[in-house]
Amino acid sequence: MLKNKDLLGMRDITPEEIHEILNTAELMKTVVTSNNKKTPHLQGKSILTVFYENSTRTRLSFELASKYMSGVAANMSASTSSVAKGETLIDTARTLDVMGTDVLVLRHPMTGAPHLMAKNVKASVINAGDGTNEHPTQALLDMFTMREKKGGLKGLRVAIVGDVRHSRVARSNIYGLTKMGASVVVAGPDTLLQPGLERLGIEVTDRVDDAVKGADVVMGLRIQLERQKKGLFPSVAEYHKYFGLTEERIAMAKKDALVMHPGPINRGLEISSAVADCPQSTIDEQVTNGVAVRMALLFMLTRRKPEAAGL
Ligand code: CP
């Protein structure tokens, strides 16, 4: 059972809640990978995905998760909605809330937008990525993948490599993994590592080789060209050489290390094609697991309501 109405960040949830989400997702994965993707868990429930930024994986996996569980799913894109006519986030949120919506899934370029929405609606709000702040459902699917492949999270050494400064995925994984007893090291060029990261209880280095050495998991981060001011690294070729996930670097990790990336990937920039497609890569499986984790969250959040009892 989740204690809050909303899922806004990994900073806000307990290790027990994380365990319960991952255990529920394990059951949901059997549905996603079966030939009969239909359950009654969201019967009579309405899920709206509200995206102010582009998305393939997150938006579609929430929509499929809703449909696999017999919920009603609809999407609002900012560019084709009344947001383009100047409607505020709060007015938009209230409008969507009074349509009988049970869960609003919001992606927004501003940090804190889901928190603001959550304060103004009765529906549960799920943060599907807010600016450079958090992307909790991505961290949960990443943790699900690590737990499934490695048998647990406690004691794992997880190297997170790349554009840490702009990465909500990194931040959510740092909060979640440290809560679950994993040790996290982040690595990238100094210009892509904000000051104060050590205060989160992690190691920080500008030497990717040092981070990757002996790691159980190596997670590459997308270079977020859309959020970068010019000049944070000299060139694509140099970035790839000094900070990219290459076959030589992955060979420094443990033999059975997982290679992860939240996607979308920039081949030849933060990760080589050979590494992205290598047998240790879990990139495709992370996407599958994303559907299962989002099914679990939608079920658990709607189950909080008394009228959903018995599902
Ligand atoms: N990983 C992730 O959030 O991907 P999308 O931007 O495609 O949703």
Compact overview of the structure:
This protein has helices spanning 15-32, 57-68, 89-97, 113-119, 136-150, 168-179, 208-212, 236-243, 247-250, 273-276, 283-303, and strands at 46-51, 72-77, 103-108, 124-130, 157-161, 183-187, 203-205, 217-220, 258-260.
Secondary structure: elements and pairs:
Layout: H1 15-32, E1 46-51, H2 57-68, E2 72-77, H3 89-97, E3 103-108, H4 113-119, E4 124-130, H5 136-150, E5 157-161, H6 168-179, E6 183-187, E7 203-205, H7 208-212, E8 217-220, H8 236-243, H9 247-250, E9 258-260, H10 273-276, H11 283-303
Parallel strand pairs: 1-2, 1-3, 3-4, 5-6, 5-8, 6-7, 8-9
Helix pairs in contact: 1-5, 1-11, 2-11, 5-6, 5-11
From the structure above, extract its key features.
four-stranded parallel beta sheet; 311 residues; 9 strands; disordered C terminus; 37% helix; five-stranded parallel beta sheet; binds phosphoric acid mono(formamide)ester; single chain; 11 helices; alpha/beta; 14% strand
